[in-house]
Amino acid sequence: MDTALLLTQVLNGLQYGLLLFLLAGGLTLVFGILDVINLAHGAFFLMGAFVAAAITLTTGSFLLGILLAAIVAGLFGLILEFAIVKHLYEMDHLDQVLATFGILLCVDAAAHYIFGPAGISIPLPAWLSGSFAFAGAELPAYRVFLVVSGVAIAVGLWLLLTRTRAGILIRAAASDRTMAEVLGIETKLVFAGLFAAGALLAGLAGAFIVPITGATIGMGSQVVILAFVIIIIGGVGSMTGAFAASLIVGLIDTLGRAYLSDILKAVLPADAASAAGPAIGAILIYLVMAVMLAFRPEGLFPPVRR
Amino acid sequence: MAIETADSSAAPEAGQRSAREMSGRRLPDIGALSIAGILGAILMAGIVLEASGQLFWFDVLVRIVILAIAAVSVSFIVATAGLVSFGHAVFVGIGAYSVGIAAHHEITNGFAHLAIALGASAFFAFVTGLLALRTRGIHFIMITMAFSQVVYYVMIGLTEYGGDDGLTIYDNSEFPLLDLSDRGQLFYVAMAVLAGAILFYKLLRQSAFGLVLSSARDNEQRVRASGLDPIRHRLIVYVISAMITSLSGVLTANLTTFVSPDLMAWTRSGELLFIVTLGGLGSMIGAIAGSGAFIGLEEVLSGWTTYWHFHFGLFLIAITLFRRPIARRLGLDT
Question: What ipTM does the predicted assembly reach?
Answer without folding.
Answer: 0.87
